[in-house]
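This week, look over our next protein:
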Amino acid sequence: MANQCSKIKMTPDPEPEQDVETSVIPLAENTIYTYALSNSLTPGCYDECVAASTLQGILNRQGPVMYLHGANTNKTSRWIEMFSKPGGWLEGKQQVKLESFGELLRLGKNVLKGVVIYDPDVPATINVATTMAGVEDGIVFSPEQAEKYAAEYGLAILHDFRGQFDGSLSGSAKNDAYRWAIDNYLDKGLCSTTQSFLYEDSRYNRPVGNLEYTYCRDFAVKERGFVFDLSPWEDEAPRDDASQPLGTDKATYIRILESYLRQTAGQHMTCLNGFFSKKKYSEIDGLGGAHGQVATEWESVWIASPYNVYMDTGPGEVYNMSFHSNAPFKPMKQGRPQLGEPQDGKTYLLFQLADYDGAGPLWEYMFNGIWNDDNRGSIPVVWGINPNLIDKLPDIMQYIWSTKTDADWFGADASCAGYINPNRIQPQYLPLFVEHNKKYYDLCDISLSPMVLDQNQPSEAVKNAFMEFSPDGLATIVMNYHGGGSAPVNHVWNGTMPVFNLNNSVCGMGSQPEELAAGVSKVISKTSDPTPRYYMFRVIWVGPGKIINAVNQLRTLRPDLDIEVLDPYNFFHYFKTTYNQH
């Protein structure tokens, strides 16, 4: 799709300045090239990160070649240092630090076919340029970068998007750009139908040098993914494009989803990586808007699910996914605990330490005093982790599984192998849904789904589907944004699979054990009935130590309760035993 009519006059310069080296840096075997990004909170900083990450995605198709370090953070160094230790998958690899952006370009000349220039006046073109870069082996440049580097480093111009889109077709320059990309790339089968990308464009981030949704572009390019940024709502114009005809964004969104369904034809599902832009498509910071953030999140999943598209909502702040995804992987094991039997008079609790359904929380939050909590192993918990993160972070997933204690157990999070509304799967695609989930559950040795999200309780067909890959239990959170939905009454489906209502009322209380204890106590009513009782609570982004403190305080608050905290397998087994006996 190269555009031979560049808007930049590329005058050959056979005699570069003496102090500028432009020759290719050859790729050496067994070598990792590192580059440290700057962070001056400027548009130039933003542009550098976009260029570096898009180039990185192409380089890392060769293997683990290019590693980016973030500015003002040690988050990135944590992982390369960990996996370079004896026994790690990077052991013995030489690391070569690139000292300048020019050196990065010289390395990139091994793989680059040219430059794609986006139009800052139409921010959506940074996503269209990223799509094109992935398909055509290009690097994404701003106009300023192209003027400065393209001719000097002998980089051809593949396409220049400046002035191409003015809204004359759809009433929206933004949507004209995405529809052009649909016609020229997605519908022609040139983009991945396995990985797609909902990445915020440059509209609000570039002016202030905010790097969110810049360094994650490496994985989109590596996978040749289609990249877009659209609103799921049809009743309100987006904040970034207020003059568009109502519903234009959603109409383009649906065209993208329809293209995926048409191309996959029920053979595989599609991962939509990323998250809606809170600044554009929901009420935030008092800016107004008809829809809250949670409602917009749920609407995004609602419209995607019938097209066999599931979400990974957390990669926007993750570096080096194209690098991590090259790690060798083998199926993981977590084992199973010895099962006991319930006792009368007991109140059984299960805590799900949750919200690791996206790459971002797993890459970062898990290791901010949570997985490395000194109290881990002292209380049984179930960790909610999306099993298909093995596609992007296989080394981190294997590290977690290999360092678990006997008290750590894993179940899928939001909702299974990907964030999806299972009730929205079209009936003819439920066998595909089973096949997709069984693959990832088996690779991660998971047989529990402790946080299935939907807008109604699971249908009979959905419960039958879950029995095939999650026979040890299903727990659900129902939030009804479309009317008619209700949470399930706890039961055992077909005498085999426990179906439970996951309590979400204390999800944000984990950082304050006193508050968490009071919240849990409020849920548990007083009773003289000796029948064992069961309560399952979701708590996000805290370590086991906070849960221990909360349980100890709960025992003080509620001396009437004989409390025992169970692992998930015993919890659901005990519940099934009690339910079948009564």
Observations:
- Residues 1-18 have pLDDT under 50 and may be disordered.
- The CA atoms of residues 232 and 250 lie 5 Å apart.
- The first helix runs from residue 43 to 59.
- The chain has two domains: 31-282+290-318, 346-581.
